[in-house]
Amino acid sequence: MSPNKIEIPRSVKTEHDAIHATLKEATRATGRVGSAAQELARVLDPHFVREEEIALPPLGLLSRLASGDFTADMADVLSMTDALKRELPQMLEEHKAIRVAVDNLRIAARADNAQKYERLASDLALPAQTEEELLYPAANLVGDIIRARLRST
């Protein structure tokens, strides 16, 4: 199994893609919404890219590991989980900048009566919290479980 073949769970990937598509649309809006959306995209896009490289693919192995399925080639994910552990403080700092940009988008959308983009801002609040409380720790646990099983074989 190559790291490129470890897939992000569809539910997580679908959520990321939907947020990205709506944000991209918002960046083309005029006025305050467009400016706020562009600033949000500037801080969010590289963060999303890195998440999709190191934080989210390990989650694709979670259900297999939970059901007792383990193969030695799962070790390919360890480079991702090791990178996530190293980069986690930076990713959490990025969440702070993303929250500020999301709040700015919410304020701009409310001022411009752009309900769709106000909803986008509201929708973006929960994923960062979910990542911090569930997804990042789960990805790290995937690496820990794989490393432990490799040692015991």
Structural account:
There is one protein chain. With 153 residues, this protein is an all-alpha fold. 78% of the residues lie in helices and 0% in strands. The chain is built from 5 helices and no strands. Helix 1 (10-27) packs antiparallel against helix 2. The radius of gyration is 18 Å and the shape is elongated. The two termini are 18 Å apart.
Key attributes of the depicted protein:
single chain, 153 residues, mainly alpha, 5 helices, elongated
Tell me the Rg in angstroms: 18 Å
Number of helices: 5
Helix/strand structural class? mainly alpha
**Percent of sequence in beta strands:** under 5%
Number of DSSP-assigned strands:
0
The main pleated sheet reads as: none
Assign a percent range to the helix content. Answer: over 70%
The low-confidence runs, each spanning 5 or more residues with pLDDT under 50, are none
Silhouette: elongated
| Arithmetic mean of pLDDT | 93
The SSE string, one letter per element, is HHHHH
End-to-end separation in angstroms reads: 18 Å
